[in-house]
Amino acid sequence: MDAIGEVTGGIAHDFNNLLLVINFNLESLAEEVPDSARTRPLFDGARQAIDQAHCLIDHLLAFSRRQPLSPISFDINQCLLETYPMLRRAIPAAVEIDTVVGRNVGMVMADRNQFETALLNLALNARDAMLDGGRLTIGTADITLDDNYATLHPGSVAGR
Length: 160
Prior knowledge:
Elements: H1 2-32, H2 39-65, E1 72-75, H3 76-90, E2 95-100, E3 107-110, H4 112-129, E4 134-139, H5 147-152
Parallel strand pairs: 2-4
Antiparallel strand pairs: 1-3
């Protein structure tokens, strides 16, 4: 595991160096190309992809250092809505994405980066299962698990 961590850390640092060059060239190109309704989304999409790649690097570095999760309290509805553009880019247009945010959903305590990564992985798995297109619905809800559910599902705990 130590060797895998070292290799992962090395790859993450090398990847970060490549991203710096890409980002520099993108910003230089953005200064040369006139801003228009056609070019703005392209540059914005590239910048967002660079930001997502930096998050991936953070995950790789956290793994290589075996860092613990960093749970914070955050609004899961807001997180879902903010993650939607990334999901839309990762899922082909033949797959419709519906987001259904529950009313009065409380805050969650979790590592937000890990939550976003899990959400993306689930969406990519759904994409792979819908080769001919379909509808992916992602939603939030405030639910309470009863004792019966907890008994039938080992590892779960009754409660909100």
